[in-house]
């Protein structure tokens, strides 16, 4: 017995086409609803950055070894580089001499200037004697200046240091020869020598010069022994391009930058139009080192509202800076300069 399935097939085709049309309509409606009610704002070229702490050389010298590599994590106190100080034993001895001379000058000032008063001459009164207080002040000033220059010799030319040394020698010679009263005729035996009290301000100045000389000596001794450059805090190493083994460095020159991972964030520049769709606390998705992460907007810096807006406008960059938080307890090493793409879900 033959079964006619034509009618059944026609029904299946007819209703199947209707179903496909309805499915397509549902999908297109869903896409339209998603596009108009759940838009995504994508920001490219965002970078990891954060608070930077600098590790510096304590004295002038030469880098002999870089212990760490770019991107390494270090703890506070870890050795990150070693150097050879250029402060010599002769410089230390000179600074010790400067302290000794400053102390002697202070003691002389505290004792006061003395003068011998002769008996009145028979024919002419003696001329007024001169005092050495101004000479002593000049000697103390030049000693302090020389001590400061010798503590940081790289900051001064050799001729400058020699010139100050010559001025000091001349001042010391002038101060060591007291002026004596001139009399035209022999006089009787001198009377007792009274003490002339000094100005308290001069004493304070001399005491300060002793402290400056002593501080210069202490700093030089410490710097001479400081051959290890230590990490001042825990963080991620950021090597500086012109710092390598054999490089000459000055006192207080930055050798390595450290980024504290606890104070790091993702930063991006957006246009003012894009910034209208971003608000504080808004979530953003991004990927770092193949790890999918999510953070929230922690800061928005608009040059037009910021104190530095005039400078930003002068540089021709009116973009808004957006900072996104990083999750804590990351399973990978966070490195400054890592790039990523931010995606913000925004409403229609």
TrEMBL record:
The keyword Transmembrane helix applies. It is found in: Cell envelope. Residues 304-315 have a biased composition (Acidic residues). Keywords: Coiled coil, Membrane, Transmembrane, Transmembrane helix. InterPro entries: Single_hybrid_motif, UPF0194_transport. Residues 92-152 form a coiled coil. Gene3D superfamilies: 2.40.30.170, 2.40.50.100. It comes from Selenomonas ruminis. It comes from the Bacteria. Residues 298-318 are annotated as: Disordered. GO terms for cellular component: cell envelope. The chain crosses the membrane at residues 12-34. This is HlyD family efflux transporter periplasmic adaptor subunit.
